[in-house]
Structure formats: C-alpha cells, structure tokens
Design goal:
globular, seven-stranded mixed beta sheet, six-stranded antiparallel beta sheet, Rossmann fold, Beta-Lactamase
C-alpha cells in the first residue's frame, strides 16, 4: 500500500485531509515508483491520481472530488502561481526535499469541464507534475543502453570538428537525456579546452562546464535571436534544444557549415523523414547534404522485470513478424507481474536506436530529393539498422516481449 492511501485510510473522513501531508505523500509515492509524471484529474466520482511508469500511465490513488480545489491551491502555492484562478492555464515549478534528496517539479494546470449539474457547468482542473530527479538521471553516454555499434558511431560523429547531428523521436523517447549525455561526453573528453554552449526551452538540468541559456519569449529572447548572438561567443559546440521553424533551422545549418558542431532535436515521423521536414522549412537540399552528418532516431521500450520474467509464446499472428531462421535461437520472455514491478511485468526501460550516417551515397540521395521511403532504403543499403530490427534483437535476447516493440515501433514490413 502506498503512503497516500495509508494516510487517507488513517482519517475518519478522507475529504478532510490536510493538503500539505497529502501532496508530499503523493509525490514521494511517485518518486519511489520511479515515475516521470503525475497526472491528477477529476473523473465522474473521484479525483484520480495516475503516474507515468516506464512510459505508461498507471493509477496510484483515487481521492475525494471535494479535495480538487484544495489540492490545486496547494500545488499552485508551491509553484508561486495565482491559487484562486482556475479558469486559465498556468505553469510553474517548485523544489521539493524528499527522503532521497532534492527534486524539481514542473507543474501545469489546465481548466476542464467534467459535466453539468442542474443546468450549471461543473468545472475543474487537470494537473500534471513532471518530476526531475537528479539522483536517478545519468548523463553517461556509456550507460544509456545504446547498441554497441550505435555508441561507437555516435562517438565518432561527436569527434568531428563541424557539422550537424540531429536527434528525432516522439515526446519521452529520451532525446534530452541523450543530448545531455553527448555534451557531457564532449566536456569530459576535452576538459577546459572546449567551449560548449546551449540554447534551450527550458533548461532541464544544469550541466558542469557548459554555458546554458534559456529562451524567454516574453522578452523576445527566441531561438533565432539567441543563436545569432551565440555565434559571436566563439563556441565550438552548440546545442539547440529544438528546431521548430525555418529561421532556427537556417541559422543552425549555417553554424554547422562554418566550423561548429551543432547538436539539436527535431520532430519527424521517421529518421529519414528529417530531411523532408527540413526541406519543407525551405532549407536547400545542398545545404542539408553538406551540413548534416548524422540523424539518430530514438525510442524507449520497457524491459522485462528480472524477478518475474519467464519464457512465453506470443500469438501466432505476431510470431510471423520474426524471421523463421531466427526462431530456433530466440529466447522469448515476458514478465508475469510481481511485487517488485508493481504487477506490471516490466522493470525499466532501454533505448532502441537507428543511426543514419550521411556518407557520399546518402548525400547524393538527399541532393536528388528522394522520397523518405527511398532515402530509408538507401540508408539501410549503406548499413543502417532500423528501429524495428534493433527492437527485434531486444526481443530475441529476452529483454522485452514482442508485443512491446509492436506497441512502440512501426514495423518495417
């Protein structure tokens, strides 16, 4: 039983719970479980608290609906927000000391409607808390779980004096952790002889020996403004939090062409699709072909709980996705669920990667504006292992069930 549930059961009337102790217990429960986010929202008959554990939401506790406003007010006070305003979105952050050390909380409040009663609309708020726990976050490139060949190739790209390295993947796929690990690797490799600067929105963790700047839209301190100014700061490595628009993309590409190593993220439906996305931002193909040296596609998949993993047989339809010649050597395993994994069958997450290195053949394909599917085929022909193939290797090694990569990664077929 978690702390929040124990506290509510110790009360004669749960709706009279004190907000300070209740909030502290909910957050500590989420941290102990290893979750990344807490979702609090009014449902029909309760205020449900869910935590995102290994990328999937799971119910933690149901609170009385009567506590909704009090809970929201308590969290807003912690984040120095306007506690009595419930009809507009608000965002803030707070520091919290826990039993395992200090953590940072990013809070978001969003007004919602949850039905009507006798002609009047019932309103509430959905609250989401993102947990940044430095005690559980490693920025060691060797400890991210990348495939051995991906790690070697990525380090070789990072050793290049100039060019652009792009990371792509959905929200929560590990892009920020990977990019921070890459910067930490460079700082450790070169020590005080290298100048590394970042422009982020927001700065999620402070990195030693690295100059980090945070975008401030209210003061017109945008990505393009920051990058133009940064170019006069004599940086060797520039990290751009995200390429969102044509102006940012153009400056980043120019920086990669003028003797800087640029590392950034960009949203795209696929690794090879990054080039089409940037061409749609009016970046000329010859500039892309000359500046981009590699694109790293990332996904995070859940791994089997080591305490309850056991051999299993996937459905016949799913088994067809595994090449027949690999079935005999496969060690297919799945977690059964136990107290160590909160009955989920999963014990953590690991990266699955797809690294597209831009060589002469790929460069020619970019210049010809080949469709994304064709460009993907060219990259595979040059030795790129796709996300699906990388995920399948994790399945065959017994690290994760087949259903997990079907859920997380688009199939090549």
């Amino acid at each position: 039983m978690n702390r929040a549930t124990e506290y509510l059961k110790s009360l004669d009337h749960p709706e009279q719970a004190e907000m300070g102790p209740l909030v502290d217990r909910v957050i500590q429960d989420a941290i102990d479980a290893g979750s990344s986010d807490i979702h609090i929202e009014p449902w029909d008959s309760s205020l449900v608290v869910r935590i995102r554990l290994n990328g999937v939401l799971q119910e933690l506790v149901h609170l009385p609906l009567e506590l909704s406003e009090k809970l929201s007010g308590r969290l807003k006070v912690m984040a120095n927000l306007i506690s009595y305003e419930t009809d507009r979105p608000q965002e803030g952050h707070a520091q919290l000391d826990t039993s395992s050390g200090g953590v940072e909380l990013r809070m978001s409040f969003f007004p919602v409607v949850r039905g009507s009663l006798q002609g009047s609309v019932l309103r509430g708020e959905k609250m989401v808390i993102r947990i940044f726990d430095p005690n559980k976050r490693s920025f060691n490139l060797d400890e991210l779980g990348f495939e051995a060949d991906t790690l070697i190739s990525l380090k070789q790209l990072l050793a290049r004096p100039s060019g652009m390295i792009l990371l792509t993947g959905p929200t929560g796929s590990g892009k920020t952790t990977a990019i921070y690990a890459a910067l930490t690797h460079l700082a450790q490799q070169h020590g005080s002889s290298i100048s590394i600067s970042t422009v982020e929105d927001p700065v999620e963790y402070n990195l030693p020996m690295i100059s980090q700047a945070q975008i401030h839209h209210a003061k017109d301190f945008t990505y393009p403004v920051a990058l133009r100014s940064l170019m006069r700061q004599d940086p060797q490595v520039i990290m751009v939090g995200e390429i969102r628009d044509a102006e940012t993309a153009n400056i980043a590409v120019q920086a990669g062409l003028t003797g800087h190593l640029v590392i950034s993220t960009i949203h795209s439906s696929s690794t090879a699709g990054v080039f089409a996305r940037m061409i749609n931002m009016n970046i000329e193909p010859f500039l892309l072909a000359s500046s981009v040296i590699g694109v790293l596609g990332l996904r995070l998949i859940r791994t089997n709980c080591p305490s309850c993993a056991m051999p299993y047989q996937p459905e016949a339809g799913y088994l067809k996705l595994i090449p027949e010649h690999r079935l005999d050597e496969a060690s297919l395993r799945q977690g059964g669920g136990c107290e160590h994994c909160l009955m989920t069958g999963f014990g953590g997450r690991v990266s699955v990667t797809e690294l597209l290195e831009v060589d002469e053949v790929v460069r020619e394909a970019i210049l010809e504006k080949l469709p994304t599917r064709k460009l993907q085929e060219v990259a595979v022909g040059q030795g790129m292992r796709t996300l699906w193939r990388a995920g399948l290797e994790r399945v065959l090694n017994g690290q994760t069930p087949l259903e997990e990569i079907i859920r997380s990664i688009p199939c090549d077929h």
